[in-house]
Queue: 2 jobs
Job 1
Amino acid sequence: MKTDFDAIIVGGSVSGLLAAREIAEAGFNVKVFEDDLEIGLPERCDGLVSLKCLEAIGVAPTSSIVQNRIKRAVLHSPGGLTAEINAERQKVLVLDRSRFDRELAKMASGAGADIEVGQRVAKHVEENGSVKVETEASAQTARWMVNAAGYSALPRGEKSTLQAAKFEVYGDWFDRDTVEIYFDQKKAPGYFTWVIPIHSDTAKVGVAGLGVNQFKVLDEFVKAKGGVAVKKTAAQIVVGGPIERFVSGRVVSVGDAAGQAKPTTGGGIYSGGVGGVLAGRYIAESLSSGDPSKVEGYEQAWRNLFGREFGLLLRIRKILDRLDNDKIDRMFKAVASSDILGKISVESDFDHHSVAFLKALGLKNIFQIASIVAGDLLDSLRPLLKRSGR
Ligand SMILES: Cc1cc2nc3c(=O)[nH]c(=O)nc-3n(C[C@H](O)[C@H](O)[C@H](O)COP(=O)(O)OP(=O)(O)OC[C@H]3O[C@@H](n4cnc5c(N)ncnc54)[C@H](O)[C@@H]3O)c2cc1C
């Protein structure tokens, strides 16, 4: 059956635009529908990534998208203890997320994809080896539909998200090289408040947490620190882990819509972006060969890269939800009295942080911290420790 397009992408953000670029580069006919009136806006993300992430998704770290480079992270406990991690080896960048999305749109359209903004996909129906995709203005058909519509498109029952807010703040208390993380289970249950500087007088300040009144918490934080919020945005962070199946019939889910954001931090540019790239490549392969089953390879490829890491992050997520402020302070004390931070600075990996972090900790330190958190943490970590040979 003849279709209007080879692939229709629902959502013109990082994962959808990367999928579109890959399919169009392989010579296929691609359409992207984006609900918002402008690619990249409103900006709901703070753009903290590693240089390695940009390499993996094939985007050059140009000065038009990189706002800042980070050298260290300082973590603050609820009781005022601090722990510093040197991040120089990990080459961490702060992206202008709007411009980054625009760059991806330029790459996708340069490869031949057609992008239509201000078009909300209302419905899709699968029929005879194709998908009919309906917006208010039209109905179009394609061999494949890529669901890249973010957290709102997570399947029912898999909507595990946290309330978040991000402010742009002018102030005089940031260190341009330093990302700061503040833990406080009363103010941001299960998550934290973050400060990501972009200049010495401007930072992206955000908070997320279970049931948190995000604007109130951030207003109080900024008031206590000093400064003024010149922009406020509410958003949702995806923390539930990958959905059960990325490929269902002729619909392929990527990015936040597939739960491809890290369950601990909600960071999804790398893992969701790679999801978009892989989905695009496997769809192109299936279109070239005429074999729809080739698309299944996308799911396997993504899980090979991220499955183990995300499994561990999900366990850590469950622990984070249970920690109280006293336990967090005790963990900070345990970390301060060991060589853990030095090892993490050298061995850790920004994009696969949990496995690298566990390796850096070593068994002795893991057991010390685990005894603070809860006995059942040990049981959940044991199989992983055996596999990593520690
Ligand atoms: C406050 C905050 C800060 C973050 N900071 C970071 C960070 O520093 N580093 C990091 O790696 N990650 C961060 N993330 C996570 C990151 O933003 C997401 O993982 C990433 O944007 C997911 O990309 P996506 O393309 O899958 O979905 P999204 O970026 O959510 O995009 C989905 C797109 O689909 C469109 N859409 C939705 N429904 C429809 C429809 N029916 N029809 C047409 N279009 C539709 C939306 O308008 C949107 O443009 C942050 C998230 C939040 C909320």
Job 2
Amino acid sequence: MFILKAKTQLEKAIEKAKKIRPTVKFDCFGRYRVSGSKGGYYTVICRRDNRGIKAVECTCKAGDEGLVCYHAAAALSLHVGLARQRQTA
Ligand SMILES: [Zn+2]
């Protein structure tokens, strides 16, 4: 799990996600499944606590170690879009 503080944290992971173009499946708001490079899917959880701190969790090895992986970046791009829709709805 990592705490999302700035978009710059995601730059490298976003670059990688653009190259790899993983499939992102929507489970529910804040919960996504992203295809891994070796097949299978990783679960990415995006949440925000009541102090406004955004935490992202991915079940892959890098995510386990607190690194920003491309699965998280891919899921976040969908999540951010959905969150924006919710606010304007
Ligand atoms: Zn991951």
